[in-house]
Amino acid sequence: MKNFKMAQPQTLDQVTSLLSEKKDQYFLMAGGTDLLDEIKNGIIEPEVVVDLKSIPNLSYIKREKDGVRIGALTSVAELAEDTLIKNDYPCLHEAALSLASPQLRNVGTVGGNLCQRPRCWYYRDPQVECRKKGGSRCFALRGKNKHHAIFGGGVCYIVFPSDLAPALISLDAKIAISTLSGDKTIPLEDFYALPSKNVRKENILEPNEVVKEIKIPLAKKGEKSTYLKLKERGTWDFAVVSAAVKGTVSGGVFKNIKIVLGGVAPIPWRLKKSENFIKGKKATESLMRQAAREALKDAKPLEENGYKKDLVETVVYRAALSLV
Amino acid sequence: MAKKEYSTHIDDSTLLYHEEFRDKKTEEPEVAPSPEEDKFQLIGQYTPRIDGEKIVTGQASYTHDIKLRGMLYGKILRSPHACAEILSMDLSKAQNLAGVEAVIQLKKGQIKYAGEQVAAVAAKNEKIAEKALKLINVEYKIFPFAVTEEKAMAKEAPRIHDRPNVDQFMDYKRGDIELGFKEADVVIEHTYKTAVEIHHPVETHGSVARWNGERLTVWDSTQAIFNVRDGLARYLKIPASRIKVIKNYMGGGFGSKLGLNDYTVAASLLAKKARKPIKIILSRKENSLCVGNRPSSLQTIKGGVKKDGTLTALYLKNYTSGGIGRGDRCSEPLVDLYKCPNVKVEEYSVYTNTGASRPTRAPGFPQGTFAIDGFLDELADEIGMDPLEFRKKNYTTKNRGGTGIPYSSKGLDKCYEIGAEKIGWHRRNKKPGEGNGKMRKGLGMASQIWWGTGRPGTLADIKLHRDGSVEAVCGTQDLGTGTQTYMAVVTAETLGLDPKDITVKIGNTEYPWCGSSGGSTTTPSVAPAIRDAALKAADYLKKQAAKKLKIEPAGIKIENKKFFNKDNPDQSVSFRELLGDFRRERVFHGECSGRPSDYAYNTFGAHFAEVEVDTETGQIKVLKVVAVHDIGRVMNKQTAESQIIGGVTQGVSTALFEGRIMDNTTGNLVNPNLRDYKIATSLDIPEIIPLIVDMVDPHINILGAKGLGEPSRIPPAVAIANAVYNAIGVHVREIPMTPDKVLQTLKRKEVS
Known about the structure:
The complex is a heterodimer. Chain A is α+β, with helices and mostly antiparallel strands.
């Protein structure tokens, strides 16, 4: 581990101007549960670690007339314990509770969770120079790939590990980003980008930008949601496959539905084909399964991760049916 | 380097371990014990750990906690390549770094796995030491490698050693296997697979070394202080009499800490060079790479059975990989446990470019039991027999499947009876997989055999002080299993005292000799030696008390810190008063006796598991495990039950999650951490019911006690696999049973 300097800015403006100086060697740290691991394992060698925790007033869950705002530094534990979130956005509550362990949830933040780096074991091996680290190949393609992507791979087969991201995207959340020229707000779904766009990153955040908050629109009347996460062990595990589903059901029929998967692609993976298939039809197990299979036609499993196709079908039908 | 890298040397294999711990005819003088006559007050009851408070309040000092004046921190440079030759090494830049006080080269020539130690530095702090490692310039010539069994077994695979990668080490035959198949009504053949497991004790490996002139003191996180001492003497070429090895508290050891380790030598060499104490603590990654592992196995069993359940033939072929070391002998349960006249075994090591195996809690037995006890369930299903009845049908009281000598005692039948009742065996699916629904429940069971006999010749002292205080001293080590507590219990029982009155001393090579804490030998070695010493002390004290009370020694009864006249309890002298009369302190030497060689000494057990399988996700939930064991007479039920719970916990973990994953492209281990090498969490652990058939072994030793370290670790995985089989009707035949494998297995069912 190389020595690094620690910057403790007091405002987000200070962060963005700091980042504009020497962008590449500056790394943002919120809870640090991921970043410190990367530093200790020699995956990254920051010159400066920018400690966002020194900025006041970035940890909050505020209800406003057009929805809820969640500060980037809100801890995952606070999110999981919030009764408003639990009542209005069950999928977000369930996603927060399903994530890591109580200790990690106490330290990890919402912003950090959305910007975490992949847990691909090739990326995390300091000896391996894969595409994500500037190398010329993806080792997972012909390597050990049971945990890797079945959708959206090609250049790189990581899966995006966040549980909060699929839940928030299903809730039509927006993300507010501080830039040098002021804040910008975009749909969270557009925040993430496939490796084909830039294999070194998982999102569109520029080196001099920082996530400020998440905005979730008011839950509509009758709207329900759930997050179903399959993992290998009981706790402290990333999703093998997960599904966030939000929708309104009337007379056993989904009037609208949104399905976002975790653990299957380099970004949270929206199943638009399944959504369209389900909408307006009588919600049954076989319909849901069929809907999942429609989307799975796009899946391109590797040697060891074909089982994820079965799991996608299961999580989609189980999560969706639980709302009926 | 005078000698080749011993810790990764091919001889350092589990085979030697097997030879060391299996029942051996002993040359020690035999004592004819009569343990059955003894009736005890404390032994076999529930006694809380005498060191429990110290441990849970953080006062117990572990090797990781040791800090000596002027101590430096050592770090080890390891090969990044799985197969290479060291062409040159330049240490000068590292040596010149401020804060670095010693740099040594540890390796020349051939590198055989990624993680092998190459050089070491000692510096004022860990950060400087790490920086110095980066300044060591090693020039490697890189060669092709094979890090997986599949690749190493391929025809064109590079050779790991100067002999074929597939190397037979075991060949056993009895009866006529072909005749056995002919006699059978049903013959089936299946292949079972178990993954390489990593030890992962909570406390990673580590040593502190300090020289004082010609004398060396080493604090080591070890299961074998005397092995470390003697190994260091051999390696450093200094007399064993000048080396002291200390181990106070232990953060777990499952076999990888059974002998001298290469980093302990590195610490000693660095300390010599720097003239200061050195501490080397391995990281979790180093712990994953280079301190040993449980070998994998790929076992094919072909077996025959008559319709009435009589086993006629068992033929096992096993390919087992312990990296550059030998694989595990997995055949023992199959050869020994079930009555079968015709048996054939072939076992092969498959060498790969990965770290050498080390004994791992019951080497070979969890793997072997996974195969044979899984196979038995499939065989039972073929003839429509209850798996438990099938095992009872092939029960034997003689070893080698009924063809050998009698077991000294065998309570497996009782384990079956108690376990079946407790789990509600009648609730199982009569036909595996019968019933409907997405969630399926099932019950399964498995038997266990292991050695666990103890080492004749183990020494222990009881020291009586004039102020009435008592020491129990033995050069053993407590892995966390409760050794100190039963030493106090046995002493207190014999001398009529309270366990709290006894000062227990262990973990120092200056104390009376004791072997390693491995092979479930500690209790049946240490407890009889303590008992022997305490009986001698009691004998002496009775004589003194008799003099004082003016009666015959035979008329003295020891109880409640007093010596009574049996016939007149009003007449007594207190323990303290009697010792106060001594002119000096007295030491009584005890020894673990030999045992008659016409018996086979083994421990037995049976586990019963209940599971629920989600047939759409492949997730297994273990609901309950009933673990019943015959371990002879129990010393302390409290720690014995904890030991069983620990073994089941580890067993559940390996059944569902654990497995080392090697990558043939990079030659690296892809899961060298506790995120990707998954260990069971508290949410994965079922209700565990530990039960002990507390029966005295009439021949084994003066207490009739056997060991318990390993037994409970052996059958959980296969009991769970059999329960899964009972639930879904197809046998997974491979651990860890992760969702991908369970789903794959269910597809086998759809096809058939």
